[in-house]
Specification:
Elements (H helix, E strand, L loop, with lengths): L2 H21 L7 H8 L20 H15 L5 H13 L7 H9 L4 H12 L13 H5 L3 H13 L5 H17 L5 H9 L20 H14 L3 H9 L5 H16 L6 H6 L3 H17 L13
């Protein structure tokens, strides 16, 4: 068994959940409101706009699990199984569902891309962070970069028609894929975004709000990852931003969790998560899938963009 790889995969999934659960308390608040209410929030206490129980996660983690478990059910052609899990999750009446995703799920009639396009037209945009927040399992599941890239794009286009969402998911999972091979976080971030718009101002505090716009979200994620020295610091700073803090925390937490490993996530965060048994089961199955080497490196799902 490759204990280091297993630790990184588990760190990625638990990192998403910990960032989500911590940031869920402060979602939609301003930074000033967070400070007035909590000082500097460091503990997973629940509450917030969704009335979360301590350790309860939101759509960020639950849709990440939908992607992970959909891939595990049919790694060669995962779109159908991912989509079925999206619909089953939505049918359960979750507390938190992003507006774009809700519109797509309400419009779905058998063709994900068509539903995403119609929602994009109706809403006037679909450049939210809802596909970026859940894309990590593609990098955790496959060893072939071509397969990671293809599944990253597929799961994004199922609900988000905007190409900026595709780009962010692919850049993010390129980072995750390289981190799983033992490369250094800061080097990976700088090299992957080189030549993209995200390279402009990289390493300095973003001049944008911590909003649900995918470009703003990803800029804050990259900044926090480059400017923090531990897993805990990364997600705490995300939570104290307010705004779309649960999603920024989840996305940053995923890469930080791979980088620092499961062992690098403070025990109080790991143990607080209410769905830790499901995350552990997904971790072990994703590890076995990678070890099985079933992927052929080809394109998945016959998607053409």
């Amino acid at each position: 068994m490759d204990a280091e790889l297993l630790d990184k995969i588990k760190g990625g999934l638990f990192g998403v959940a910990a960032g989500d659960a911590l940031g869920g308390t402060t979602e939609f608040m301003s930074a000033a409101q967070v400070k007035a209410a909590h000082g500097f929030l460091t503990e997973i206490i629940g509450g917030g706009v969704w009335g979360l129980a301590p350790g309860e996660v939101t759509d960020d983690t639950m849709m990440t699990l939908c992607v992970a478990e959909g891939i595990l059910e049919n790694p060669a052609e995962p779109m159908g199984t991912i989509g079925r899990r999206f619909r089953e999750w939505y049918a359960g009446g979750p507390k938190d569902v992003g507006n774009i995703i809700r519109q797509v799920l309400e419009r779905y009639e058998g063709n994900w891309y068509e539903a995403a396009f119609v929602a994009h037209l109706d809403l006037g945009q679909s450049a939210g962070n809802g596909s970026l927040m859940r894309c990590l399992p593609a990098a955790l599941a496959y060893t072939s970069w071509k397969r990671v890239e293809s599944v990253s794009r597929i799961q994004s286009r199922m609900t988000h028609y905007d190409e900026r969402c595709d780009e962010a998911c692919i850049l993010y999972n390129r980072m995750a894929w390289r981190l799983l091979q033992g490369e250094e976080l800061c080097d990976v971030i700088r090299e992957v975004v080189a030549g993209t718009d995200y390279a402009v101002g990289l390493g300095t505090e973003p001049a944008c709000a911590p909003s649900g716009f995918v470009v703003d979200t990803f800029r804050w994620v990259l900044y926090l990852l480059l400017d923090s020295g531990s897993f805990g610091e990364t997600i705490q700073r995300a939570a104290n931003l307010g705004g779309d803090s649960d999603t920024i925390g989840a996305i940053a937490g995923g890469l930080a969790g791979i980088h620092y490993g499961y062992a690098g996530i403070p025990e109080r965060y790991r143990e607080a998560i209410l769905i830790k048994s499901r995350l552990t089961a997904a971790t072990e199955a994703l590890y076995l899938l990678r070890q099985g080497g079933e992927e052929d490196g080809g394109e998945v799902g016959n998607v053409r963009m």
